[in-house]
């Protein structure tokens, strides 16, 4: 029995990959290796594989804590909307999400996934800021 919740509790990990071709040309959205250049197919394959690895890492950590969990990967040009819709389809009780800590200027031009989720989710949302290094 886990000390992290009640019997029957379940965690669903959702990761949304934004297609490289939909990102603004400001260099803040793409996190893949620079050697892939502008071959969007390979960039997407890389990002999807990284998303799968991330999901597996979270499932492994949850399992070690005896927490029931699943992970889902979505590819969508609107990650905020994808997260809100996914929370509905998975009947989530709460959304806990991180943010990248973009400055005010970048957030103004790029928008903020966490802002979108905060304003459109039908359930409580907790936004966790990035770790200070």
Compile the SSE list and pairings:
Blueprint (H helix, E strand, L loop, with lengths): L9 E8 L22 H25 L3 E8 L3 H11 L5 E4 L5 H7 L2 H8 L4 E4 L5
Parallel strand pairs: 1-2, 3-4
Helix pairs in contact: 2-4
Shape: globular
Alpha-carbon distance between the two ends: 34 Å
Overall pLDDT confidence: 81
Briefly note the structural class of the backbone: alpha/beta
- The count of β-strands is 4
Estimated radius of gyration: 16 Å
Count of helix runs:
4
Helices and strands, in order, run as: EHEHEHHE
What is the helix content? 25-40%
What spatial order of strands do you see in the largest sheet? 1-2
- Beta-strand share of residues: 15-25%
Low-confidence stretches: 25-30, 32-36
Largest sheet at a glance?
2 strands, parallel
Describe this structure in words.
- The chain has 133 residues and is an alpha/beta fold.
- The protein is 38% helix and 18% strand.
- The protein has four helices and four strands; from the N terminus they run βαβαβααβ.
- It has helices at residues 40-64, 79-89, 104-110, 113-120, and strands at 10-17, 68-75, 95-98, 125-128.
- The strands form two sheets. A two-stranded parallel ribbon has the order 1-2. The chain has a two-stranded parallel sheet with strand order 3-4.
- Strand 1, helix 1 (40-64) and strand 2 form a beta-alpha-beta unit.
- The longest helix has 25 residues, at 40-64.
Summarize the structure.
This protein has helices at 40-64, 79-89, 104-110, 113-120; strands spanning 10-17, 68-75, 95-98, 125-128.
């Amino acid at each position: 029995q886990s000390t992290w919740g009640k019997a029957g509790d379940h965690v669903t990990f959702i990761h949304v990959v934004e297609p490289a071709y939909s990102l603004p040309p400001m260099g803040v959205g793409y996190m893949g290796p620079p050697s892939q250049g502008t071959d969007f197919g390979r960039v997407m394959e890389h990002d999807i594989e990284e998303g799968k690895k991330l999901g597996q890492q979270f499932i492994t950590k949850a399992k070690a804590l005896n927490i029931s969990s699943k992970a889902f990967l979505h590819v969508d040009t609107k990650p905020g909307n994808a997260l809100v819709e996914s929370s509905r389809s998975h009947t989530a009780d709460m959304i806990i999400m991180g943010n990248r800590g973009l400055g005010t200027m970048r957030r103004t031009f790029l928008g903020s996934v966490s802002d979108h989720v905060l304003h459109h989710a039908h359930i409580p949302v907790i936004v966790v800021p990035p770790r200070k290094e």
